[in-house]
Amino acid sequence: MIRILAVYPNDAGSRFDGDYYRHCHAPFAHRLLAPFGLDSVRTVLGGAALDGTSPAYWAVSEMLFATRAAFDEAMAQCGAALFADLPNYTTVTPVLQVGTLAEEDIKEGA
């Protein structure tokens, strides 16, 4: 299982509509990507930095796919539609990263 992280930086002067993201974009993305192997999506919306100032990131979303090939195919087929929806909720371009969950790599007694 791979994890694709979409990180939305809180750049100076940027905006992010968390309600639109949660109620419109995320369900839209799930409907588009599920037929290509999307297992699940989890999103954390930034509330504040520890000192109470604005968060460094508007949001971090994690999408789980069985393989990198499945994600690549999903983006080849649906990426344009997903990115076309960006202006509806943000002025920043998400930074995408491929990763694995560290605990999945740790074996008992190792």
What does this structure look like?
With 110 residues, the protein is of the alpha+beta class. It has a domain at 1-62 and 91-99: Alpha-Beta Plaits. Helices cover 34% and strands 27% of the residues. Strands 2-3-1-4 form a 4-stranded antiparallel β-sheet. Helix 1 (18-33) crosses helix 2 (68-84). The model has no long low-confidence stretch (mean pLDDT 92).
Features of this protein?
single chain, 110 residues, alpha+beta, Alpha-Beta Plaits, four-stranded antiparallel beta sheet, 3 helices, 4 strands, globular
Number of helices: 3
What is the CA-atom radius of gyration, in angstroms? 15 Å
Helix content: 25-40%
CATH class of the domain at 1-62 and 91-99 reads Alpha Beta
- The main sheet orders its strands as 2-3-1-4
Order of helices and strands: EHEEHEH
User: Outline, from the CA principal axes?
Assistant: globular
What fold name goes in the CATH topology slot of the domain at 1-62 and 91-99? Alpha-Beta Plaits
Strand count, sense and barrel status of the largest sheet are: 4 strands, antiparallel
CATH architecture of the domain at 1-62 and 91-99: 2-Layer Sandwich
Keywords: Plasmid
InterPro entries: Dimeric_a/b-barrel, EthD_dom
Protein name: Ethyl tert-butyl ether degradation EthD
GO molecular function: oxidoreductase activity
Topology:
Elements: E1 2-9, H1 18-33, E2 38-45, E3 57-65, H2 68-84, E4 95-99, H3 102-105
Antiparallel strand pairs: 1-3, 1-4, 2-3
Helix pairs in contact: 1-2
